[in-house]
Design brief:
By secondary structure, the chain is mainly alpha-helical. The protein has five domains: 86 residues; 41 residues; 94 residues, K Homology domain, type 1 (Ribosomal Protein S8, Chain: A, domain 1), CATH 3.30.1370; 119 residues, Hypothetical protein af1432; 75 residues, Cation efflux protein, cytoplasmic domain (Alpha-Beta Plaits). It has 16 helices and eight strands. About 3% of the residues have low confidence.
Length: 507
């Protein structure tokens, strides 16, 4: 048994040894393999690092080149700016030298002017002394003599006025005989004149008449001066009349008074606020009027300035005929005639619509409506046929197309239609327009309105340019020029208004 046990132990020991040797060899091989694998990975990582390093180096180089290029560009810009600044500083220096030279010249001229004034005053004093010696009169005596002569001249003027009224009284005797007969004809013309010269404003009560007049007439004076119309407040219950030959001005005045009555606050400051608001509303309104006309006729596109002038023609009359109604009549007639003759009816419609567009400006600028209209259409690049029609419809050029000829024929038909035009109203409108132009041609005049059916000219002057004494002389100058240039019945009152206004704001 012992022998068998020993043999077992021996075999076990031998087996353990063999197993240990085998495991040791196997582990050595495994570790060698892992070492090779790790070395391969390390080499791969090293190659990848080198590649990334190279790429990063290239990228850095590219960025350095780009930055260097940007720096060079910025450097060139800075150098360019520096050069321009140097040139500008030189220019400023030259201008400063010129300014100093001018200041020096002005100083010299002021000195010479003061010297001349001094010499002039000395010469005047010397001349006065010489006159006193020659005439044996003192300065006070000379003044009295001059004033006596002025008084004599004024007496002759007064005598002329007296003779004028005596002659007028004799003429009135003859006119009175025809007065009753004249009433029959004025009844016929009343509706016509009222439609074209008068607007009626209805008041909630007669108390509003007093509020419109204001304390000492302050409100009605402000209204008439600002609006340029004649406001008639009589005994007719619940209404006031607004009279003016200018349709646009009269429409604005009517709307201003209606809004003031609705608002209830009637004073000069509020009147100015409402007037500004209504003027802006009317500017928008006339544009919408013109736009609606183009939509109805299908004539878009058109420049917005021409659209606005089309709408403004609603408030313009020629020989008593409404300019917009006449224009639409001509446009439609021309379109029909052009279509019948084989022309372009749309072009004829457009030419007819714009043939009198210059009339929208004649009340403000004067001159020929043909020239004004043609210049406008050239400015806004209208078709040549439209421009030719504007010239041709009053004989300034020959029609060069069927459409132009159609416009000329349509204009003649519209104007010649019985009852379309009234010469008397046109002559009255021209007279009051001439009155306003005479006043506006004077230096220092801000506004001028002919009111009271052309029997009064109200002129507002710039208080900074015209003094009280100059205002008196200005009224006389305007009256004399009206006597020379305008034919009118009776007499025309010239009122020159001068007021100063100071405005500040507390903030």
């Amino acid at each position: 048994m012992l022998i068998e046990a020993g043999a077992g132990l021996l075999f076990a020991a031998v087996g353990s040894g063999v197993t240990y040797v085998w495991l040791r060899n196997n582990s050595s091989k495994k570790f060698a393999y892992m070492e090779l694998e790790a070395q391969a990975k390390a080499q791969a990582i090293e190659h990848e690092s080198e590649r990334l390093l190279q790429n990063a180096t290239l990228k850095i180089r590219e960025n350095e080149l780009a930055l260097e290029k940007t720096f060079q560009n910025r450097l060139q810009e800075v150098e360019k700016r520096n050069r321009s600044l140097i040139l500008e500083s030189k220019e400023i220096k030259r201008e400063k030298e010129k300014l100093q030279q001018l200041q020096y010249q002005v100083s010299e001229k002021n000195s010479s002017l003061a010297e001349l004034k001094k010499k002039r005053n000395a010469q005047i004093d010397e001349a006065i002394l010489q006159m006193q010696n020659v005439a044996s009169m003192t300065e006070e005596e000379a003044k009295i003599e001059i004033l006596e002569k002025v008084e004599l001249k004024c007496r002759s003027d007064i005598a002329g006025i007296v003779r004028k009224y005596e002659q007028r009284a004799k003429e009135e005797g003859k006119k009175k005989a025809n007065y009753i007969l004249a009433q029959a004809t004025t009844r016929y013309a009343g509706e016509f004149a009222g439609e074209r010269l008068i607007n009626l404003v209805t008041l909630p009560s007669d108390d509003h008449k007093g509020r419109i007049i204001g304390k000492e007439g302050r409100n009605i004076k402000a209204l008439e001066t600002l609006l340029g119309v004649d406001i008639v407040i009589d005994e007719t219950p619940g209404v006031i009349l607004i009279s003016s030959f200018n349709l646009y001005r009269r429409a604005i005045a009517t709307r201003v008074i209606e809004l003031l009555v609705e608002d209830g606050r009637i004073h000069p400051g509020r009147i100015e606020e409402i007037h500004e608001k209504v003027e802006s509303e009317f500017e928008q309104k006339i544009y919408e009027e013109g736009e609606n006309i183009l939509i109805d006729l299908g004539l878009f596109p058109m420049h917005e300035e021409l659209i606005k002038l089309l709408g403004r023609m609603k408030y313009r009359a020629s020989y008593g005929q409404n300019a917009l109604a006449h224009t639409l009549e001509v446009a439609r007639l021309a379109s029909v005639m052009a279509a019948e003759m084989g022309g372009d009816e749309k072009l004829a419609l457009r030419a007819g619509l714009l043939h009198d567009i210059g009339k929208a400006l004649t009340q403000d600028f004067g001159g020929s409506h043909v020239e004004l209209g043609a210049e406008l259409c050239k400015k806004y690049k209208e078709h040549p046929t439209v421009i030719n029609a504007i010239y041709a419809h009053h004989g300034h050029a020959e029609p060069d197309s069927v459409e132009s000829a159609a416009v000329c024929a349509a204009d003649a038909l519209s104007a010649a239609r019985p009852g379309a035009r009234r010469e008397v109203l046109e002559s009255f409108t021209k007279r009051v327009k001439d009155l306003e132009e005479i006043a506006l041609s004077k230096e220092g005049v801000a506004r001028a309105y002919a009111i009271n059916a052309g029997r009064e000219l109200r002129v507002t002057v710039d208080a900074g340019q015209i003094g009280d004494n100059e205002a008196v002389m200005l009224s006389k100058e305007i009256a004399e020029e009206i006597e020379d240039r305008v034919q009118y019945p009776g007499e025309i009152k010239v009122s020159v208004i001068r007021e100063s206004r100071s405005i500040n704001y507390a903030r």
